Amino acid sequence: MKAKQITTYHVKGEAKTWEKALAPEDESKSVKMIESNVINLYPDFAFQTIEGFGGAMTESSAYLLSRMDEETQNQALQDIFGPDGLHARFVRVPIDSCDYSLEEYQAVADPIADPDLATFSIDRDRKYVLPMLKKAIEISAEPISVLMSPWSPPYQWKTAPKIAKNDAAVYGAMGMPVPEEIPQRNHGGSLKPEYYGSWAKYVVKYLQAYLDEGIPVTMLSLQNETVAATTWDSCVWTPEESKTYLKDYLYPEMKKAGLTDKIGIFIWDHNKERMIEHVLTVLDEETMDMVAGIAFHWYSGDHFEAVELMKQKYPDKTFMLSECCALHMPGRIGFGDGGFGPVNFQTPEYVDYLDAADYAHDMIGNLNAGMNRWIDWNFLVDKDGGPRHVPMGFTSGLIVDDDFHYRKPIMYHYIGHISKYIAPGAKRIGWSKYGANLDVTAAVNPDGSYVVILLNRTKEDSGCFLRVNGHIMRVDLPAETLSTVVIEK
To answer: Which of 122, 157, 388, 391 is deepest in the core (most CB within 10 A)?
Structure first.
């Protein structure tokens, strides 16, 4: 049995990696009887298939890639999709504009004047998004699979957002103008029921246009952040409205276009903590076969139990984290410093580490709860967390500087610790651990190798013994590190 340990840690914000070979300890009785600080692997207990990892090709990310010189652009795409990069194979693409677009736009400028959608065009996507997607497909070490998600229907089909007095006070406190209560892409509002059929036709035209461009679209979510009335492109749906739209309009329109066997529909696409109530309403005997899976985000905390409960109830559905990011500019936390929440006086370097540790914790927890696919938010952003058509910005796995070269924060390396070593088609396997200060997950790859992910977020060095198939080996766990152990038979 051969094993190696790859550990990433931070020194003043830089990701450092060391690797060492591990050999099974002496097979004496005393070693076999070790009981303390042990992590056991149980390959006989196999769970969900882990299909892969990825991120979003928003207009903002594609624009930044387009501004790079050819050599830098190719290297960035290799670092994301290549065999020595993150092995990304799932890509999320917004339908029309989202917050990470350079401006608001729709594929039909005025659907009231053009109810037949004769002016429908994805020319906007051909400028940045489609060229970068096609290059990614050429470079990718794995077959690419695209998820398309709408942030808002055309504003002419929506109700005006309801701006409560407390919301208006928040906008004013943040120095932002109080929005008007008129139909718009931003600030929520809902799709009027009389346009459900038109919106279904619009979405199907978008899917078909991408397929005609050679883009392997295999997934569609009903709506990004179903109950969020954000300051950017958004639309609010109740569970009952989502079910009606799915059952009576979207699925029949997709079936008529011959897309139901090609593109799986995902519901919810929002934070984990309210997932159960929504899904239990939308899924019933009528809709069960229309839904391929459940998508969720991380912004309201762990709630791994919610994912696990849903996986137990719907074991045949695909569970996918479809978006996550740290809600601050790269290296900056707090109001007035490029993010949400109270001011945090951590150094930028340590903020980068905290982001990486949060990512690893969430990825590990979701995998243990039954997640099959994981999709990050933007593949890359600029140093201010943009560009985007609304104020503020959020961080990402690659950060582009003013000269359109890029750097890799610790988050990039932590994502890679999981996405590079757990191969598509791996099976999560059973394990047990000795204490609460360590996050653990484990999988067996299609080639038979075992992968163990170990996150030590404490400020103290430690170590453990890893036991599998009668062998035991020592693993070092330095303070504030993420370690991957790969064991080959």
So the answer is: 388
Residue 29: give the domain boundaries: 2-46+429-488
For residue 181 the two structure tokens come to 């209560």
> Are residues 216 and 122 part of one domain?
yes
User: pLDDT tens across 380-405, in order?
Assistant: 999 999 999 998 899 999 999 999 99
φ, ψ dihedrals at 431, nearest 5°? -160, 160
| Domain end (from 424, 444, 474) | 424
* Of 3, 101, 18, 22, nearest in space to 60 by CA: 101
DSSP state of 249: I
DSSP single-letter state for residue 26: P
Q: Could you tell me which of 275, 281, 295, 287 has the C-alpha nearest to residue 222?
A: 295
The rounded distance, in Å, linking the Cα atoms of 484 and 482 is 7
Which residues fall within 8 angstroms of residue 45, CB to CB, at 6 or more apart? 429, 430
pTM of the model: 0.95
**161/477 Cα distance (integer angstroms):** 51
| d(C-alpha 244, C-alpha 238), whole Å | 10
**Which two structure tokens, joined as six digits, stand for 245?**
């739209």
